[in-house]
Amino acid sequence: MLKSKQGISSTLKPEHFELIFESILSHSKDGLFVVDKEGVVVMVNKATEDMFDFKASLVLGRNVRDLVKEGFYEPSVSLKVLRQKKVISLIQTTRHKKKILSTGVPIFNDDGKIEFILVNDRDISHINMLAQSLYPDELSKDGLRLDFSDVDIASAELEKMVVKSPAMIRVLQSVIQASKFDVPMIITGDSGVGKSMIARLIHQLSDRRNYPFIDLNCAAITPSLIESELFGHESGAFTGASLTGKKGLFQTADKGTLFLDEIGEIPLPIQVKLLKFLETMELIKVGGTSPIKINTRVIAATNQSLEEMVENGSFRRDLYFRLNVVPIRVPTLVERPEDIIPLALSFLDRFNQEFDTCKTLSRPVCQVLSEYDFPGNVRELENLVRRLVTMTKNDVIELWHLPDTLNRGTDVSPDIDPQHFDYQGELKAFERKMLQQALKKYGSQQKTAKVLGISQSTLSRKLSRS
């Protein structure tokens, strides 16, 4: 039975709990799978159907023992929970070789006996492939170097990571290693390479993950206000100050992480105060006199050369060395061309789901994208794909849909009028042929999708639609 706050539970009737539970089943992005004390499946939600690639009608009313024997998935977390009578997490493999992180939770009756088991499933195939890229020579049995809590907590950030290039694999290896050590860090790289995403991933993989992640773009705050923003102020500390005083971001991020983007924009007088905080973990608010003990990890980022700033006197040398315990440089997109098409297809898949479209990129478009320098890096590529998905009428995105900056020097025949010529049949036939050839070559949808740089669900959808 669901529990709720005293005084509220009396207004909830049994049918209300049923409605709430049905809503959770329908809309949860995680798979939810319920079996009874005998191991018979009694509830399955849509997310589970999609993850395991079966219809609910094929498994409802059947025993999980039979499902395992018939190869729907293995092993069964439900059977382990029935035997051990406790919460268990393990990695299940579906018949299509997807990796699913499954957590089985026993639901006991008033006599202390198991009545049902609720299984929560999360598709971690992408994370598993990422782990294989990061640790190809030293995989554990289940193919993951990260423990269950890491995968579960950091999955939202890990699923955003599209890493094919050796350069980014090295970055991610450094991130995973450094996240376990509670030291300051500086992330460098050009604008748009994904420094804030790296900072969030470090936080999620650290022991501070259950506490706040606060970020501040130092370039967006005027020099006169940045001290108050970071350290807070006492009541009436300056003209316009809050009468009740204000917490600074260091205090707000206590026990968590403060991400200072564009750290080079902090004025020299504030750099002195920041250095003192890093050395003592104490701060004094603007207008205050008493030090406050704070436990906040600082991750800084910049697209400038702090070494040059140190040499010309615009950034303190001692602060630079204090922050630069673990330096991480995120390469530009032109330095990791292997990531361009996988990233574009990942964005395409996300925006297709967001806008309920079914757009694809033609081969010539992929060729142009892979050869473009992308001065705006990943952010520019993401915005380009969003624009193409929302502004292109046809399902296939062709060369003439690209902006002039990318099409310059590309041979687009003027004899063809794209508005009055139907390419759909030929393009679908070509795509079907290519996908089938790739599937025949690599043997499984999982491996084929990995080589093509698309998700397995996208590959399956294209094959079934073709």
Topology:
Elements: H1 14-27, E1 31-36, E2 41-44, H2 46-52, H3 56-59, H4 64-69, E3 73-74, H5 77-84, E4 88-94, E5 99-108, E6 114-123, H6 125-134, H7 148-158, H8 166-178, E7 185-188, H9 195-205, E8 213-217, H10 223-231, E9 232-233, E10 246-247, H11 249-252, E11 257-261, H12 268-280, E12 282-283, E13 292-293, E14 297-302, H13 306-312, H14 317-323, E15 326-329, H15 340-355, E16 360-361, H16 363-371, H17 377-391, E17 396-397, H18 404-407, H19 424-442, H20 445-452, H21 456-465
Provide structural commentary:
By secondary structure, the chain is α/β, with parallel strands linked by helices. It has three domains: 15-123, PAS domain (Beta-Lactamase, 2-Layer Sandwich); 163-331, P-loop containing nucleotide triphosphate hydrolases (Rossmann fold), CATH 3.40.50.300; 335-465, Orthogonal Bundle (Helicase, Ruva Protein, domain 3). The chain is 44% helix and 16% strand. The chain is built from 21 helices and 17 strands. The protein has helices at 14-27, 46-52, 56-59, 64-69, 77-84, 125-134, 148-158, 166-178, 195-205, 223-231, 249-252, 268-280, 306-312, 317-323, 340-355, 363-371, 377-391, 404-407, 424-442, 445-452, 456-465; strands at 31-36, 41-44, 73-74, 88-94, 99-108, 114-123, 185-188, 213-217, 232-233, 246-247, 257-261, 282-283, 292-293, 297-302, 326-329, 360-361, 396-397. The strands form five sheets. A six-stranded antiparallel sheet has the order 2-1-6-5-4-3. It has a five-stranded parallel sheet with strand order 8-11-14-7-15. The radius of gyration is 26 Å and the shape is globular.
